[in-house]
Automatic annotation (TrEMBL):
Keywords: Amino-acid transport, ATP-binding, Nucleotide-binding, Transport. CDD domains: ABC_TM1139_LivF_branched. This is ABC transporter ATP-binding protein. It comes from the Bacteria. InterPro entries: AAA+_ATPase, ABC_transporter-like_ATP-bd, ABC_transporter-like_CS, BCAA_Transport_ATP-bd_LivF, P-loop_NTPase.
Amino acid sequence: MTLLVEDLVAGYGDARVLHGVSLSVGEGEICAILGPNGAGKTTLLRALSGMVRARGRVALGGTALTGRSPDAIARHGVAHVPEGRGTFMSLTVEENLRLGAFVRRGRAAIEADLDRIHTYFPALKTRLKQAAGSLSGGEQQMLAIGRALMLRPRLLLLDEPSLGLAPLVTRELFRIVQAINAEERTTVVVVEQNAHLALGIAQQAHVLETGRIVLSGTAERIRADEQVAQSYLGYRV
């Protein structure tokens, strides 16, 4: 389903962070949200999932989401993996995964989806009875994404999935995200500091600066533009 964002304004209390952000993401696309720290990237994802109050228009598949509660937005098929993963450390891996299906009914389908998650993250299958807090950082991020997939989302929001992970683990994680997108046609919006890696899996990208979109285009074009890379993304082509 197409995600449409029009003139989105959001913040915390009297502090405005987003200043009229507009973008669209086609069904089954991966969209990278890039920019420096403090640009408003995390706030954008929080606004899309209903975690902060916002004005403007957010619609998924033509259904307006602005002003709805996070629970209602989740029921519409939006799964948010926050920065820091948000796993319940004292619960087991299996309990965390099952929490991801809290808005769903149909026990057989949920059991089938547990098996489906294990095809993406086989390491989790051998750790189902372990406390989430005993997992490595990479395994915790896999668990967070697996839990989000238990919702059977139409839109998956990922906030800094590579944070604190080793480069090899990060590359594997992005490979899995790309596979999920390709196999399940799940629309993905990913906020990521590793711009080069994010642009490698995305079809389109938007660069945020001080709460405004300052650059939009295909991921390929943005990745290939040396001036853009040095000015906004912090790396050389």
